[in-house]
Specification:
Layout (H helix, E strand, L loop, with lengths): L7 E6 L6 E7 L2 E5 L1 E3 L1 E2 L9 H7 L4 E3 L1 H6 L3 H6 L3 H5 L5 E3 L3 H6 L4 E4 L2 E5 L6 E4 L1 H11 L3 E3 L11 H21 L6 E6 L5 H14 L3 E4 L8 H12 L8 E3 L5 H9 L4 E3 L2 H6 L3 E2 L6 E2 L19 H5 L2 H9 L4 H26 L3 H6 L2 H6 L10
Parallel strand pairs: 4-15, 5-6, 6-7, 7-11, 11-12, 12-13, 13-14, 14-15
Antiparallel strand pairs: 1-2, 2-3, 8-9, 9-10, 16-17
Helix pairs in contact: 1-14, 6-7, 7-8, 13-14
């Protein structure tokens, strides 16, 4: 495994909270943390070319094991030179294990202690995803960071069901560790347990005992609310090693990210920038801009004057509104680029404030993000 190498180094810490900056070292380059990685589910971030991703400041991409397993298949990608070559992306890649699809595709799944049986959402064929297969697929894909198979539960969830999911997650993590064969890939375990402290503690303690390269916090951002998420995150991070990277899966809004960095999270991924971009919803420091609205018909200003992205440097709100109304694909592409750049600018700002020792004070002043980006203003969260 990659554990015998110094793959993560904490550089600075905020003395008033758990926020920190660090460097994650991978075979495809270093990643400064805290970092946000866009989601490239099927081997591409929808509508965005790799060169455009680089221009936004992106250094890490997430790809989806379940979807790549179905199409084009891990063997095909391996024969074509691995996922980096397939995606034309020479920087680090993280792959999930398929565990989230246990939750998101629950009507198509049957869970046992051995693994998860899926009825393919494409043709209904039966697929048994076990811990060993999840690792075998990810070893073939060749991502820099890979994830253990876990069981993600819905919210709310009964204690008995949560306990079963935690027990399986620990057992599957042990099996994943046993089957992991690629020394150039870091293997992260995933802490589950809903918002119940006793189950989070049980899961985290057992996974820390097994000594993984990093630890993810799963099962949050699923309806429990911002306060419950941060409370659970705070408690969980206390149990995780201080010298290992921490990854909050599938989160989130700017407010969620700022609060989670305050609790010591290093890695984030989410579909929010691109999914909302494809739906004419733009993120800005002054709140959301909905580009289909009539108010933008004759507006010659960019989405955000302070933004240095390709979209804001070349296109007006009026042009973007027109592209969406005539179903021109350029509209979703451009607003996705802007949103990706917004997120990377936010992460750069966070890293700078931590390095300068003022992150905690700055984060306390960012309450407008809670006001701007919540579930009641049209943002598409999942």
């Amino acid at each position: 495994m990659f554990t015998d190498k110094t793959n993560f180094q904490v550089i600075t810490r905020d003395i008033n909270c758990r926020a920190r900056t660090g460097v994650l070292t991978t075979p495809h380059g270093d990643v400064e943390t805290p970092v946000f990685c866009p989601v490239g589910t099927s081997g591409t971030v929808k509508g965005i070319m790799p060169a455009q991703l680089k221009e936004t400041g992106c250094t890490l991409i997430l790809a989806n094991t379940y979807h790549l397993m179905l199409r084009p298949g891990a063997e095909t990608i391996e024969k074509l030179g691995g996922l980096h070559n397939f995606m034309a992306w020479d920087s680090p890649i993280l792959t999930d294990s398929g565990g989230y699809q246990v939750f998101s595709l629950s009507p198509l799944t049957k869970i046992t202690d051995k693994g998860v049986q899926f009825a393919s959402h494409i043709d209904g064929s039966k697929i048994m995803l076990t811990p060993s297969l999840a690792i075998e697929i990810q070893n073939k894909l060749g991502a820099d960071i890979i994830m253990c198979l876990d069981q993600c539960t819905s919210f709310p969830c009964e204690h008995k069901q949560l306990q079963k999911a935690v027990t399986r997650t620990i057992s599957w993590a042990e099996q994943c560790q046993e089957f992991h064969k690629n020394p150039n890939q870091m293997l992260f375990a995933i802490v589950q347990g809903g918002i119940e402290p006793d189950l989070r503690k049980e899961c985290a303690s057992e996974l820390v005992r097994l000594d993984f390269d990093g630890y993810a916090i799963g099962g949050l951002g699923l309806g429990e609310g911002h306060d419950n998420m941060i409370k659970t995150l705070s408690m969980t991070n206390e149990l995780l090693p201080k010298d290992k990277p921490r990854y909050l899966m599938g989160v989130g809004t700017p407010a969620d990210i700022i609060a989670a960095v305050r609790e010591g999270v290093d890695i984030f991924d989410c579909v929010l920038p691109t999914r909302n971009g494809r739906n004419a919803f733009a993120f800005t420091d002054n709140g959301p801009v909905r580009l289909r609205n009539r108010i933008h018909t004759n507006d010659n200003s960019p989405i955000e004057v302070e933004c240095d992205c390709y979209c804001c440097q070349h296109f007006s709100r009026a042009a973007l509104r027109h592209f969406f109304h005539v179903s021109e694909m350029l509209g979703p592409i451009l607003v996705s680029i802007h949103n990706l750049r917004f997120y990377q600018r936010l992460m750069a700002k966070i890293r700078l404030h931590v390095k300068n020792g003022v992150f905690y004070e700055w984060s306390q002043q960012q309450s407008e993000y809670l006001k701007f980006y919540n579930s009641n203003n049209g943002i598409i969260k999942k």
